[in-house]
Protein: NAD-dependent epimerase/dehydratase domain-containing protein
Amino acid sequence: MAEKEEKERVCITGAGGYIASWVVKLLLSKGFIVHGTVREPCDGKNSHLKKLEKASENLKLFKADLLDYDGLCAAIDGCTGVFHIASPNLYPKVSNPQAEVVEPAVVGTLNILKACEKARVKKVVVVSSVAAVILNPSWPKDRPKDEECWSDPEICKAPENYYFLSKTLAESEAWKHARTSELDIVTVCPSFVFGPMLQPTLNASSYVFLTYLKGSFSVDQICVTNIYKICVLHYTLEVQFLFLTSLLYIYSLGLRFLDIRWT
Structure:
């Protein structure tokens, strides 16, 4: 009798977060072994992951943060694909945004990519944000902002918009690294993401939505991405880096995906 084929292993950074939790759930349902990085595996805010279907047999949580290169290497070892989703944000408020948000996002992304190279990962999906797209006053006003548009770091710095700055610099560094690396990298730039929550804590998008409803946050337009749409996109990318569709895999290399066009 032929030996049972070993299941593919995929690592997800920041596994306890909102989008990441849904990606963990999706990958487990498709039969993958999932390695998830969290700051504290025993923390109650990550307990929902252990309750997911097939988690007891196919989910392993690793203690690591973005600045813990050795911890990231341990989590990524043996994986064929990585979803880099973890990223610091401004909720709850931080006292030193440059040190607590910008630097960990940039250095952490590079740590992930270096760990992926060491582990010979086949494909990396870096989850960026529409924040890395929309702050560009030089973009033609009659052209919707698309995957070619990038936020201007100097514009981000002016109002001290540290989250936008962190996502812009982190994704930019990922692409710079890709040009001198053999890694196959794809980036995804979602906007606000709403839908059912798997985790017990409030995520940043939901926090923004609540403050908007309370009248303490004002925007001309809130762009909404349903969580199910994000999962469909992530599953498509998952299929790509696992070579299930060679044509799709070939033409996905080096692409940046924006889930909606901004005007």
